[in-house]
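Hi R.,

Here are the chain sequences for the assembly we discussed:
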Amino acid sequence: MAGIYQRTLNLRAALRHLSPHSTFSSAATVRHSLVGPRSSFLPITTSQFGVCCRKLHTGADGHKLRSPAAAPDRLPFSRITQGDLDFFRKILPGRVITDPDLLESSNVDWLKSVRGSSELLLRPQTTEEVSQILKYCNSRNLAVNPQGGNTGLVGGSVPVYDEIILSTALMNNILTFDSISGILTCQAGCVLENLSLYLEEKDYIMPLDLGAKGSCHIGGNVATNAGGLRLLRYGSLHGTVLGLEVVLGDGQVLDCLATLRKDNTGYDLKQLFIGSEGTLGVITAVSILCPRKPKSVNVVFLGCETFEQLLKTFQLCRGMLGEILSAYEFLDSEYCPFYVVIETSGSDPKHDGEKLHNFLEEAMTSSLVTDGTVATEDSKIKALWSMRERVTEALTHDGFTYKYDISLPVEKIYQLVTDMREHLGDRAKSVVGYGHVGDGNLHLNVTSPAKDPALLAAIEPFVYEWTARCHGSISAEHGLGLKKRNYIYYSKPSQAVALMGNIKAMLDPKGILNPYKTLPDNLK
Amino acid sequence: MAGIYQRTLNLRAALRHLSPHSTFSSAATVRHSLVGPRSSFLPITTSQFGVCCRKLHTGADGHKLRSPAAAPDRLPFSRITQGDLDFFRKILPGRVITDPDLLESSNVDWLKSVRGSSELLLRPQTTEEVSQILKYCNSRNLAVNPQGGNTGLVGGSVPVYDEIILSTALMNNILTFDSISGILTCQAGCVLENLSLYLEEKDYIMPLDLGAKGSCHIGGNVATNAGGLRLLRYGSLHGTVLGLEVVLGDGQVLDCLATLRKDNTGYDLKQLFIGSEGTLGVITAVSILCPRKPKSVNVVFLGCETFEQLLKTFQLCRGMLGEILSAYEFLDSEYCPFYVVIETSGSDPKHDGEKLHNFLEEAMTSSLVTDGTVATEDSKIKALWSMRERVTEALTHDGFTYKYDISLPVEKIYQLVTDMREHLGDRAKSVVGYGHVGDGNLHLNVTSPAKDPALLAAIEPFVYEWTARCHGSISAEHGLGLKKRNYIYYSKPSQAVALMGNIKAMLDPKGILNPYKTLPDNLK
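And here is the predicted structure of the full complex:
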């Protein structure tokens, strides 16, 4: 980490560079992916895993006590027959995959932490095909695992047992784009980065951006209510998604694909499906409100001595950068002070530069920040973001990382890091926090040389209990999926969970959609 | 309308005034209410109306064919007994209103268009009291009409028959405010303007603002998914509301009152209640994300010769004003060109002034705008907004106004005005459109000297059919309430409406919450 110091410019020099009369270069916000495209770690052979999903969760070493994250027993869904295959081959000619090698990458999540044993992958191209598939599966009591880019982190996007994988990969058409309103409609399987590239040519951007953009599908983003790097500025998908087309468990097509900013005619049904992780319906098309492409983007990398200074800097920057602030990320390490990455995006390079200059001068004068660097060009912006990303990458060199995605009142997010450090003492190799200060979202990472059940037992449920005491969320943006479904009560009261169960029963009475996910096992 | 010209400054003069080196005064966005506080038209005596809600809707002149907006027959709810009154007086000492004079203002909507005949008004102060009331009403099969500030425009906020009125007026405490994150939590009965005043002292604002702010309650705003003047900038309540506490029909308290920007633990239940018009539960508390108070606010009033120029001006201004654009409203009249009201709000008065100057210069050079005025001071900003509001007020001088709140693709919003004018010909006194261009929201007004059933028959269903052909919404921000419930199929497919019915049946099986509202009569 000390190397970061050597790579930074002196902040005073940066301030000279940022004089009010200099003009920033126009720079698109291009960042390296936090994770490589899925293909970078494929193919994976079964022998690398050698255990089924349930075993992974119960521990391959044969622990008798099953952890709350362990998969429950297989539910009594039907098994696939030759007749089923015949039916699917008739409606999806050439798009019915049964070859185990081809199925491999869809059975395993990209963290390589869970694996299912599905023997059937379907690749529909149209909503009508999805509808036919689900109608058939519902009547036959066959379980289905809807899958987008399979970049999820909680085991929600892969089968647990032999669920049929329903991939949106071939549903990748852009349907319409209105250049006056900025409203895009597209099929669910469009890759986020492809949508971004399409929009940039039209002077717009997607309202969300995340590390997995090169692989993730917009349908999966909506199904998991993905947060990401632009949430601070453009808000959550509950506000930017204007319409959805969804196929319900029985094959019924629910058309809520409005392209209107305002529509108060009855209950806003689409909201139910945002963040439901494919358990209530399969999203087949999305309409979304896109912001104009900023003409000016700047990134600053700063150091603060204490978390209190970091929060004061945040307040200062919200006041002085105001409407151009588009990211305020932090990362900490046991060996250095706190680092802050601030991004601005706006419509006037000169004005943005002046605001940034004034903010940095004030932050230096008030001794809130100690050092840092300012990126005024595209290549330097990329370099700064990749510096932030390298820190997370560096964690993997420690061996094994236990990852948590916690939402807390902003002023409390760092307390969890220090409390966890104290609580674990020597048992962890390192405890590192980073995340989105602006959203109160902490990514907590605990590393050890290898998987360590004793360490895990020291972390959980400590981390969840701590979060619940502060009325935080045990999953800020990753969702619950398979891995965290039984921890839901730490963040939601039992009445709310029971109501979720009623909604699930109403929309998918046979429970064929993404079983074993999102809702806890002890639900009636 | 011609008077507006005389009151405007010449735009060229305004541009001189707006030279890049001048500084705008810091101005809070204070506007006159579009409507006076409720008390301004009260007390109303029964003789002024003399007809019950159903008669009003079927036409007091005894038309035999009931219009789709007419109230259905009273459902078989219980009648209030002395025992019921005794119970309520015990749990709400001194807050059980049965005096007909005191009930009068709660039985009539502020448009004076519908009236109920409730004989009981309850004024709980706490969530626990609301819970006790609903638990009792549910067991006794007594219908309940939840009521906030009673400023709704579609007859959703008053009883239709003898429903018990449950007022949130005494639930007006602010619970918490976090000055770092800007997250406010408060009881549902807080008046919007009071929340705004509270926040302004802390350098924040509410993310919504509307004409009725002096009377409307935040709970009612959320229950009706109110849009208003800041939606273009801060988005809808589906994005800014972070948590809700809701009491369900059976008295169960659903605590989803999170104060987190990110929380992906299960289905986002609170979304169901946003815009459900009190038919699914009674909102008792709200947590909402508030933006920082802008340091600089400017308002421009411009004239455009054609709607095409108005749209081009909108595009230009989105590009050049970018992140500081906070409103783009238009109004038209048969006697003058189009008027545009543009509001900017930002963090740096000098930068905002420069952006505005450059935009106006470009708009003039390109001959997109013909004339206008710029407000750089608080008093002039108020004067400009009230000029916009006076036009709507002026309509009332024509006699009777038929009002529609339509959402359309932006480029189509004016076509409806011209088509309606052509369609109605001499039958209407005037056809006037105004609204929020930025949101694609048209407020269409048709005036006549008096109520005119033949004119109404010419407007409806023409206006709804026209809107449906363009995939618009027949209620952009006002909701459906009593008056528009049966028009829902113009904007929503039957599958979606059926699903809404299932949700209603699940959450309120006895149907005691705000009956006859939102959902159509022909629902199974």
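The longest helix of chain A spans residues 378-395. Chain A touches chain B through 92 residues (CB under 8 Å).

Let me know if anything looks off.

Best,
T.
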